[in-house]
Specification:
The protein is about 35% helix and about 20% strand. By secondary structure, the chain is of the alpha/beta class. Strand 3, helix 4 and strand 4 form a beta-alpha-beta unit. Bound molecules: 1,3,4-trihydroxy-5-OXO-cyclohexanecarboxylic acid. The site of 1,3,4-trihydroxy-5-OXO-cyclohexanecarboxylic acid has 10 residues, from loops.
């Protein structure tokens, strides 16, 4: 199975960014643990702070042989019609994830532009959301 994880803006700062909300682990360590746990899953990873780069990567992967995409679009979740349009256009299913429970935070984070076009959403379980998203593809 081939799964790609895409993280959006500021998620490169995991581990140092607002640890009370996002935890103390860097994404590199989360990724290392996932690759160790799921030796039979080919997990590729991409992070960008730029909306267009995220769209380019979604388009590249979205017509290829990946079985699924796990997307944490960061703040673009709440603003990006362009990312939503891209998810609707590609073939590969996308699971939306958020480390924090966005519904327990500021109102501006309660709305997602992308949920409507995603296969499912996993929110608020810390960095474990990435593992849960992998499980969702494995249990298909
Ligand atoms: C986030 C939640 C977003 O509201 C925020 O802008 C992020 C991270 C999360 O994983 O909890 O950058 O997507």
């Amino acid at each position: 199975m081939n799964i790609t994880i895409i993280n959006g803006p500021n998620l490169n700062l995991l581990g140092t960014r607002e640890p009370g909300i996002y935890g103390n682990s860097s994404f590199e360590s989360v990724l290392q643990q996932l690759r160790k746990k799921y030796g039979n899953v080919n997990i590729t990873y991409f992070q960008s702070n730029h909306e267009g780069d995220i769209i380019d990567r979604l388009q590249e992967i979205g017509f290829g042989d990946a079985d699924g995409i796990i997307l944490n679009a960061g703040a673009y979740t709440h603003t990006s019609l362009a990312i939503a349009d891209c998810i609707a256009a590609i073939k590969t299913p996308v699971v939306e994830v958020h480390i924090s429970n966005v519904h327990a935070r500021e109102e501006i984070r309660h709305h997602s532009m992308i949920s409507r076009v995603c296969k499912g959403i996993i929110i608020g379980f810390g960095t474990d959301v990435y593992r849960l998203a992998i499980e969702s593809f494995l249990s298909e």
